[in-house]
Amino acid sequence: MGVPVLVVNNDPTTRNKMRHSLEVAGYNVMEAEDAETGLATLRASERGMVVLFNVVLFGNMMQGTDGIAFLGAAACDTRLAHQHAFVIVTPTPEQLEAALGRLLDHLSIPVITEPIDADALLHTVSRSTWRLLVSA
């Protein structure tokens, strides 16, 4: 039996294409049509898996947990984070950038772009310092 791969994607055509390519290459493929099913499959698994998930489509086309929440839930679970290898599938680099922006917003992580603007730097560090003081 090949290495297990879990394909988490809401589009059955995409899942089938990925399944076919991976099975021809010798992988043991499982599918999940949504993030909740994907997380349940990971939690029930005793073997490590390669997990292919679409970070963008979940948020735009599905109800419930989106791809960002899926990755966050898996990353916060020490066993899942260490047992499995995660791969993001995205239609375009721009959609990945937007999804990562949502993740950073969700985690309240500000971003400063280069070249560094002194006012933006000081404002961001001040806000971050305030956040530390409030949470202490």
Protein model, in words:
With 136 residues, this protein is of the alpha/beta class. It has a domain at 4-91: Rossmann fold, CATH 3.40.50.2300. The protein has 7 helices and 4 strands; from the N terminus they run βαβαβαααβαα. The chain has a 4-stranded parallel β-sheet with strand order 2-1-3-4, with helices on both faces. Strand 1 (4-8), helix 1 and strand 2 form a beta-alpha-beta unit. The longest helix has 18 residues, at 118-135. The radius of gyration is 18 Å and the shape is elongated. The protein starts with a strand and ends with a helix.
Quickly list its features.
7 helices; 136 residues; Rossmann fold; 4-stranded parallel beta sheet; alpha/beta; elongated
How is this structure best summarized?
This protein is of the alpha/beta class and 136 residues long.
How are the SSEs placed, and which strands pair?
Layout: E1 4-8, H1 12-24, E2 28-32, H2 35-44, E3 50-54, H3 57-61, H4 67-76, H5 78-83, E4 85-89, H6 93-106, H7 118-135
Parallel strand pairs: 1-2, 1-3, 3-4
Helix pairs in contact: 2-4
Count of extended strands: 4
- Whole-angstrom Rg: 18 Å
Work out the strand percent. 5-15%
The parts where pLDDT drops under 50 for at least 5 residues are 57-62
Mean pLDDT: 82
- Strand ordering within the main sheet: 2-1-3-4
Q: How would you spell out the order of helices and strands? A: EHEHEHHHEHH
Which structural class matches the secondary elements? alpha/beta
Q: In angstroms, what separates the terminal alpha carbons?
A: 51 Å
Q: Write down the CATH topology of the domain at 4-91.
A: Rossmann fold
Per DSSP, the total helix count is: 7
Kindly provide the name of the CATH class of the domain at 4-91: Alpha Beta
What level of helicity do the residues show? 55-70%
CATH-defined architecture of the domain at 4-91: 3-Layer(aba) Sandwich
Question: How many strands, which pairing sense, and closed or not: the largest β-sheet?
Answer: 4 strands, parallel
Dominant shape: elongated
